[in-house]
Structures are given as C-alpha cells and as structure tokens.
Amino acid sequence: MKPQFEKPFTQQEPVSEETIARVGDILRSGRLHRYNTMPGEASEAALLEKEYAAYQGAEYCLACSSGGYALSVALRAAGLKPGDQVLANAYTLAPVPGAIHNAGGVPVFIEIDEDWHIDLNDLRSKAEATQARFLMLSHMRGHIADMGAIVALCEEFDITLVEDCAHTMGAHWNGVKSGNFGRVAAFSAQTYKHINSGEGGLLTTNDAQIAARAIIMSGSYMLYGSHGAAPDESVFASVKLTTPNYSGRMDNVRAALLRDQLPGLDENVRRWKLRYQALETVMINAPNVDVSERSQNEDYVGSSFQFRPCLQPSMIPDLVANCGARGVDIKWFGAAEPQAFTSRYDSWRYLGEPDALPQTLEVLSRTCDIRVPLTFEESDCRFVAEIIVSEVDALVETSL
Question: Alpha carbon of 69 to those of 75, 100, 200, 263: distances in Å?
C-alpha cells in the first residue's frame, strides 16, 4: 500500500470566536444591509473599505458582492463602451472573460510564456493591431509579469490597465503592491482566496471619477456619502444622474468576516510562502518535474503551486488519477473540456470561435496546479510533493 495523504485540499482555517460573536451581534440587530445604520454609525462594509484602502495604499475602495463583479464594474467605471475590445492574458479563469462580456467588452486573448506570464511580444502586436483601449491583466495563480514593461507598454499605447488581483492580494512587484500599477484593480474574497467571506470582492483605485462611478454602479443610490473610502461629494455631483445602478453591494456580515482577517493577511502571506517553498524544494530537484523559478522582483503569495511533469499530455490524466488515489488533488489546465474551476480559453464558446494561440495551448497542455491551504503544515507540503514526484517518475518509467 502506497503512503496516502489524508488532509483535504479545500479546508480553510476556522473563523475566530471574536468574529463569530461580532457576526452574531449583526444578525441579532437585523441590520445586515450596508446602508441600514443608526445616525453617526459607520457600517461594517464602510469600515472595511476604509481599512482595505489603507492596507492597499489606495485612495478609494469599494466593497462589493464578488471579485467577478468588481472586475466588471471596474471596466464600466473606467469607461468601457459596448463592443470595445479588451486585451487579456489567455491563461485565466472563467470569471475574467465573463466579467469582460458582462461589461459589454470583447476579449482579445494574448499568448502566455513558459512561466505563465502574459507574453509581452504578443501583447505589443495585438495592442498595435486592435488599438484596444483596455488591458485586463490577470495575475493568474499569483504569477506577476514584468510590471515595469507592462506599464510602459500601456502608456505607449494609451491603454487603461485593469488589474485582476484575485490571486495576488498582499503580493508585491519591486516593492509595489499588486493592484497599484493600473488605474483600477479588483480583488476576490471567495473562499479559496487570501481573505475569505465565502464570496465577495474589493475594488481599489486612485481615480476619483472611477471610484464615484463604481460606487453608484454598485447600488449606492444617493447614499454614497456613507462609504468608507469614497471621493468628495463634488465628484459624485458630476456623475450621479448619468451612472446606472447594477446592485453589487457587499453586506455587513461578509464585511465583518473580512475585517477580522485583514490584520493577519501579511502574516498569512508569509505562511503561504513557506508552504510553497516546501513544495518547491522537493519538486525543483526532481528530474522529471519542471518548476519555474520566481523573479527576484516578485514577492508572491504561495497559495497555489504550478508545475509541469515531463510527460506527454496524454499521460497527465493518469497522473491526476494516480495522485488522486493517494489523496493529492491535482488540477490540469490542458483538458479540452472544463473541469470544476479549471477551463481553457478555447472552451468559452459564448465568445465565438477563438483565435489560435498555439504557444498558450502548448504551455497549458502540461500545466498542473494544486491548492496550498494554510491548514497544511510545511511537512504536509513536502509529503504532497514527494507523492507527485513519485507518481510522475512511475509514469515516466512506464513510457520508456
């Protein structure tokens, strides 16, 4: 009997007793809606906005219903019009093209390189060819591309950069926090992200006009003055009658959950990185596993781990099955059909026939992914890596 890994890959750390008590107080009050406050009282959602803006180093913050909603409203608030093309890296998850589509945009997918970053040459080529005014850059699975080069390219072509930071909350590039490079950024608080309210999103920006439009779009009615990190009244005066309400607010229960976790976020980033490095130490020395080295400019959050087994893509389903039988849950981005959360750009058929992206398909054909929950210890991560390496080696042996 081969050694088995027994811990689940989807178990999160528990909510603190203090937060449970605070949520209980909110439930007993019956005032779950963010605008249901007493005179002089700030809601939990408003307090979260103030605190997250301070954490991020941004002027403005909006707490909303999901990360996907934050992405969609970010585009709309930044001026996207129906039919506008939006450049986007092809390695991402389904909510990203969904957000572009929901906002009325048309995705133009960009190739990725061997290290899962947006390909800068293809980005330049398609920026020139399309004259697109927007780039939605997903820091997919926590991999941050050369942000200096991307910002320079956006400035050259007058492209509005929207950052999808669902996987990089708390990460940095050259000492600058992810989300602070573009005009607007979106973060997720879905269960498997870095702070957890089950579902939820945050939008940050230093642009007062974008912030005001996003707040009204979220469903503030004329109660925008009660937001915790909002522009002055004068900014709202210029947009309040010409901006639609899309109703995507965050409620006070979820805001209370996130407020409790925010002070510990940087410590959790440190803990994730240690677990990532425990996996990396085993896999990077394995002859039949390819692991990309992270840039020295990148201070990443290691909440997931990606690797490429030295196998033919046709053998990777066997690897997934064999590791699964030993308790190790691997996701594969090369499957032609979507599997659970994992899908490929050419499976989003509602967008029409996809352009050929051979480089991306080649990279994804061998891209494997595992979650790294904080309920794992570093020793657990080493054990998981040893199981993966042993199963890769066994399949390589059978293929000789």
Answer: 10, 10, 9, 24
